[in-house]
Amino acid sequence: MKKGLLLSLVIAFAVCFAGSAQAFEAVAPEDLKVGWVYIGPVGDGGWTYMHDKGRVAMEEAFPGVTSSIVESVPEGPDSARVMETFVRNGAKVIFATSFGYMDFVQDVAKKYPDTIFLHCSGFKRAENVGTYFGRMYQARYLSGLVAGSMTKNNVIGFVAAHPIPEVIRGINAFTLGARKVNPDVKVKVVWLFSWFDPGKEKEAAKALIDAGADVIGMHADTGSAPQAAEEAGVYVVGYNNDMSKYAPTKHLTAPIWDWGAYYKYTIGKVIDGTWESDDIWWGLKEGFVDLAPFADDVPQDVRDLVAAERARIVDGQWDVFHGPVKNQKGEVVVPEGTAMTDADMLSMNWFVEGVEGEMPK
Amino acid sequence: MELIVPILAAAVRSGTPILYATLGGIVTEKSGVMNLGIEGVMLVGALTGFAVTYHSHSPWLGLAAAFVVGAALCAIHALLCITLGVNQVVSGLALTMFGTGVSSLVGRGLVGETIEGLRAFPVPGLSRIPLLGPVLFRQDAMVYLSFALVFLIWFFLLHTRPGLKLRAVGESPLAAAAAGISVPAVRWSATLFGGGLAALGGAYLSVVNSHMWVEQMTSGRGWIAVALIIFGIWHPLRSALGAYLFGGVGALQLRIQAGGTSIPAPLLLMLPYVLTIVVLTAISVRKGKGILLGAPAALGQPFHREERE
């Protein structure tokens, strides 16, 4: 008898448990625990550093919410273990901030349908899994307009971390911007195969400067390429955050992240009980990406042009990868009058016309 | 000429931090103590150098502090391995993990800051020599110091009595002790000095090369130093050559990319490692007796007086 009662209780409990997975109820900030899984150390000064700034902004916006982090989590089974530990410690929301966590997020999310998982830069969703990323390419395009206006040699160097779609998309958007104002511009790319190695980034920038580049763009996580540019007296476009500290007179601008905008939005929805699985890909319009302040050297007409192009993008009338877009061979990849789909942008593995150098295979 | 000079100059620049760590490692290992903690010590050195320069505005003070803290850190290794006789491989690996962790933790507040570090200082006269001038003598003072150190350490190890004692301790601690040499004292000094040099190599990255602190900024250079010690068969001059070779191939592959050739970048990135293996094989074949010829015979073995047979 007692056993039967216990069994029915367990069943009833399980049913309730499964049922509650459909809707996420409102939660008081004091009861909300949020976990962040970071790919790198907070001290990388770049990617993870900016995520953590966003996390702190969320904490300030919602006093009472408890947030915790685990740094330098490899993109493997370890990440699942970290997420499970978060859940067992009572986390209601978990942010996984790197692409390679994708399948592990799916596995853990299936086991814990009551917990909300948010995966940065991936494409697999579920009822309790949302994805988020920023249209950094929009800010990169604007920074390209500035770079293209400031080069005299028509050679721009680009220090690039890894040949993955995110980086390639950025180089392409930057190049499209530069060539809009100056069709003769060539963008030379040097791959680092590393996210942060200041010594190597500096040498790569020096190599590009020696090869004739008089503006340096970058997609790496430290400010040492800007330092090399300042020392050599050439302009530089930073990345992640305002890097003018490293190149006080030569830092034209930088495409920058504001993850706080998204973290505040999502935690607000969780607290209200209105969160549903979503795919967020915000850009300039929502303030997810932006440009750092311009250097004094950037002339007014360039600033006006950037403002006009930004307005076009924010309005939604135009976006960076609207046709015609040509590849390196000069073939039209995106015909006039059409726009690239988000899916195509997320898997981009070819260079636009004007980029020099080959894609590593 | 115009192409080769920037590559060679970059080779010296990129090779210098590894060179300091390698020289330190040679001195330590020649006394019979293996130190796999170089990577961790370099990181702590990079942070110390940066932090002290940041607060004192004196890069020289920062570099000096890095040396002292690096030596202090290796005192842990010395205490464990020399005095207590624990396994040197385990202690060294623990030192790397400790150095990586503690530098990340302590350095948190310094991320994103920048300093007025050491700048290039062309040597008057010498810097005008064709080829050699721009490659060797338009660098910074720490590069010049490393040139001097290579020769000083070579001279010390191979041509002085204290150097002979140090090598004796590394080859046969038993015989050395019988000759009245204090084995622990020699090993302690060699370990502390080696730690100081490894930390200077790390500080070169933060104070001279990049003027910033980034967690794990050594990116495995400490492990390359460990390999270069063997590559140079425990000889300072050959190891210096190895350090510049490593730096040079790294610089060359970046420049080949910037030049826009169709050589795949990963192949270029492999080059330094392939070269290491090739040179290693070549040397061991030529010597006939294998590369261990130059290795200190008692490397990695703890020494206890009471265990004498």
* H-E order of chain A: HEHEHEHEEHEHEHEHEEEHEEHEEHE
Radius of gyration of chain B: 20 Å
Unreliable residue runs of chain B? none
Rounded mean pLDDT of chain A is 90
The CATH C-level name of chain B is Mainly Alpha
Properties at a glance:
heterodimer, A: 361 residues, alpha/beta, Rossmann fold, 11 helices, globular, B: 309 residues, mainly alpha, ABC transporter involved in vitamin B12 uptake, BtuC
Question: What would you note in describing this structure?
Answer:
The complex is a heterodimer of chains A (361) and B (309). Chain A has a 6-stranded parallel β-sheet with strand order 2-1-3-4-5-12, sandwiched between helices. In chain A, strands 10-9-8-6-7-16 form a 6-stranded parallel β-sheet. Chain A folds into 2 domains: 13-134 and 259-282, Rossmann fold; 136-254 and 292-356, 3-Layer(aba) Sandwich (Rossmann fold), CATH 3.40.50.2300. With 361 residues, chain A is an alpha/beta fold. Chain A is 40% helix and 18% strand. The model of chain A is unreliable at 12-22 (pLDDT under 50). By secondary structure, chain B is mainly alpha-helical. Chain B has one domain (4-307): ABC transporter involved in vitamin B12 uptake, BtuC (Orthogonal Bundle). Chain B has helices at residues 4-30, 38-56, 59-83, 88-106, 132-136, 141-159, 161-171, 173-178, 183-209, 221-231, 236-259, 265-287. The chains are: A alpha/beta (361), B mainly alpha (309). At the A-B interface, strand 7 and helix 7 of A face helix 1, helix 11 and helix 12 of B.
What's the quick description here?
By secondary structure, chain A is of the alpha/beta class. Chain A is built from 11 helices and 16 strands.
How are the SSEs ordered, and which strands pair?
The complex is a heterodimer of chains A (361) and B (309).
Chain A: H1 2-20, E1 33-37, H2 47-61, E2 66-70, H3 77-88, E3 93-96, H4 102-111, E4 116-120, E5 129-134, H5 136-150, E6 155-160, H6 165-181, E7 186-191, H7 198-210, E8 215-219, H8 224-232, E9 235-237, E10 251-253, E11 255-257, H9 259-272, E12 279-282, E13 289-291, H10 300-315, E14 325-326, E15 332-334, H11 342-346, E16 355-356
Parallel strand pairs in A: 1-2, 1-3, 3-4, 4-5, 5-12, 6-7, 6-8, 7-16, 8-9, 9-10
Antiparallel strand pairs in A: 11-13, 14-15
Helix pairs in contact in A: 2-9, 3-4, 5-6, 5-10, 7-8
Chain B: H1 4-30, H2 38-56, H3 59-83, H4 88-106, H5 132-136, H6 141-159, H7 161-171, H8 173-178, H9 183-209, H10 221-231, H11 236-259, H12 265-287
Helix pairs in contact in B: 1-6, 1-9, 1-10, 1-11, 2-3, 2-4, 2-9, 2-10, 3-4, 3-9, 6-7, 7-9, 10-11, 11-12
